[in-house]
Amino acid sequence: MFKKAFKGTAPDYSESKNWLELPENPDKKADLIYLYPSSCNDLAADTICDIDNISMIEGAKRNYAQQATAFEPFTNIYAPYWRQVNALKLPMMSFEEVDNAEWSEPRTDVYAALDYYFENLNNGKPYFFAGHSQGSRLIYMVLSEYMKEHPDYYENMIAAYCIGDSLTKEYLKENPHIKAAQSADDLGVVVSWNTEGPANKGKNSLVIAPGAVAINPLNWCVDETPADAELNLGTFVPHLEDCGMDELPIKADAMIDLERGSVMVMNPAFAQCSITALPGFEVFEPVFGPASYHGCDYSFFYMNIRENANARLKSWLNDKTD
Hints:
This protein has one domain (16-321). Helix content is 27%, strand content 15%.
């Protein structure tokens, strides 16, 4: 039984125009369902942007290229367009207001896209979820509510990469069927982290909730064992204006702050990558804190994410053929 009534009419996901990515020849052994982060940056748009908002579409394409492509070598990627909370409205909204907005049209669209995917496109294949920020928050809704109604779908989930939004102890307690990743190759789990610098300790962040838990994307530990930069297979910074990324000459380290539930990059050289260090983004400091690497949650660890997801897929295939 769904918790709330659905708001609005969902797009028709049998139409290809409502998909950011819809593979023509899905010949890989596993799928990826990707939900992009807050991509609408349109002051003239409503709090919930339209499905055809140009700003959202362009931002979604950029985020897809910088995030979902980490899984491209070994998955068929399905990425629906979905109405979402306008990113430029977020600084004026409380956590409760954001949460209520995401439970309205965004949830309607994502659930409808999943209905279409599982009924027409999945064909029994194992799959990953991957999201970032607002996209990850929608995946948490899917795992806690939608999958309770569809346990047969849930059985084939390899892992859910819910990056850039908090997986919390309270959420796990309320949803005992959901397990947080504990290692590099466990299956049917949620893989989650938020990336910050030490200057964010004690600061508020929209994406870091009390009781957050995380896994280290370099050593895949859940304790405070530091991971040196030598474990990083490549550190990138995404472009704001196009779909590219620049590889940095230095690599990000990573260490979990258990008290905060985030992944800390300790090297001070990365302060220039803070979301609030970008021109015009100073307004987001009260939202994310002074040393948030929210925009680099994927790109700092892009190649490690690729390696890890491929390892989980191989583990799944080996487990199912034994």
